[in-house]
Amino acid sequence: MTPQEFEHRLKHLQEEFKDLFDKYAPRIVGAVAVRFFKSRFQIEGWQRAGDWKEVQRRMPAWTRNGKTVKNPYHGAKLTRKILTGDTGDLGRSIEVQKESPGSVTIWTRPIGSNKAYARVHNEGLRAGRGAGFKMPKRQFMGEHPELNKMIIEELERKLKEIAK
Q1: What is the pLDDT of residue 135?
Q2: CA 83 to chain centre
Q3: Is 55 exposed, middle or buried (0-12, 13-18, 19+ CB in 10 A)?
Q4: Can you give the pLDDT at residue 67?
Q5: Which of 7, 22, 100, 146 is buried most, with the most CB atoms less than 10 Å from its CB?
Q6: CA-to-CA distance for 42 and 124, rounded, in angstroms?
Q7: Element (H, E) at 11
Q8: Whole-Å CA distances, 88 to 29, 38, 92, 94, 97
Q9: How far is CA 46 from CA 27, 28, 109, in A?
Q10: What are the structural domain ranges in the chain?
Q11: Which of 89, 94, 100 is nearest to 31 (CA)?
C-alpha cells in the first residue's frame, strides 16, 4: 500500500467511524436496549430472574385486614407473567422514541390515557388505587451492567466490520 493509498484508507475509515457514531450507534444502542428491557418481562426480574415481588393474582390466598382471602382468580390469570396483565401492553410499549447523532431515547408509549403507568411500575410509586397503595418496584428499564456489556459487544462487532 502506497502512502497515498494509506492516507486515503485512513480518511475513509474516519468517515465510516463518524457515520458509526452519528448514525449507527444510536440505532444499535436503541435496538439492544429495547430487546434487553423487554426481556425483563420474560424473566420477571431486573438484576436476576424472579426478583420482582409476586402479584396477588398468582397466590393461592392472602391476608387483608387480618382475614385470609381465598384467591378469586382462575384460568390464565393464575399463571400469566407478573407485568404482562391481560394484554401485555406495557412490555410491548417499550420502543425507541428518538435517535439523533450520538444519542437515543427509549420510552414506553403511554397506555390508554395513563402516562405514568410504566413509571409507577418501574420505580415503585404511589398508584391511583386507594389512599395508601404504593406499587411495589418492578424495574424493567434503566442502567444495567449486563446491558452496557451487550451494547459494547455489539458496537465492537460493528467496529471490527468497518475496520476490515
Answers
A1: 87
A2: 13
A3: middle
A4: 92
A5: 22
A6: 19
A7: helix 3-19
A8: 24, 11, 6, 11, 19
A9: 23, 21, 20
A10: 3-50+84-163
A11: 94
